[in-house]
Amino acid sequence: xxxxxxxxxxxxxxxxxxxxxxxxxxxxxxxxxxxxxxxxxxxxxxxxxxxxxxxxxxxxxxxxxxxxxxxxxxxxxxxxxxxxxxxxxxxxxxxxxxxxxxxxxxxxxxxxxxxxxxxxxxxxxxxxxxxxxxxxxxxxxxxxxxxxxxxxxxxxxxxxxxxxxxxxxxxxxxxxxxxxxxxxxxxxxxxxxxxxxxxxxxxxxxxxxxxxxxxxxxxxxxxxxxxxxxxxxxxxxxxxxxxxxxxxxxxxxxxxxxxxxxxxxxxxxxxxxxxxxxxxxxxxxxxxxxxxx
Length: 293
Fold this sequence. Notes:
Serine Threonine Protein Phosphatase 5, Tetratricopeptide repeat, 76% helix
């Protein structure tokens, strides 16, 4: 009798697993939203074994792969999604993002143009179109895309931050500062708007304001390389060498060339020759930094 109950329990459990694709998809989506991209990709693939004709799920899988820095694989999923549903705008947005990651600007623009033509009310498409345009040094187009994104829904800090970057690149400093300020106001717990605005003020030689914002960004996310480096660099240029070296050394060990290069300058200025030599030695095994948004 016990064996029969155990067998029935196993059969029922197997049936429940096999009959709950919606639960599998929900779990995948949860992992995707919470940036557990590897697990999300695994679950999306598992779902697609049974339901291979879902263009939306293939697009979400591509998004997870893009988060895992696999743009070629993401592009392949975008193409599969488009083959399944040529009118699914988000698949074109994904393809545009994947081409952007590979610095294929013209191909990216073609896909973004198609995405916003199919769904001109998609704020995410306009946002990523703006990002791609900015990376391609097409700053006027980036401004236009970010403004379109802002008109389509609730204001977002990241859109204002990137709008500020685009205005800054066009030397429209007044507009840039308004955008940066709004990004900070909407930032919540995000450190990036503080770093972006602080760096803008640093370039404008407004050092006290810059230091205040960069310090705040650093306190919010001390483990982010850009927040640590930019705050340390501002301290260095403000003549606060001891504070600068302390901030920068807190990021060691590091593969960031710029961090070791700045430490070498600080140590050399302080007369700490052995420390400066170690920082220069570290440059042999470092990597150029790649900043994202």
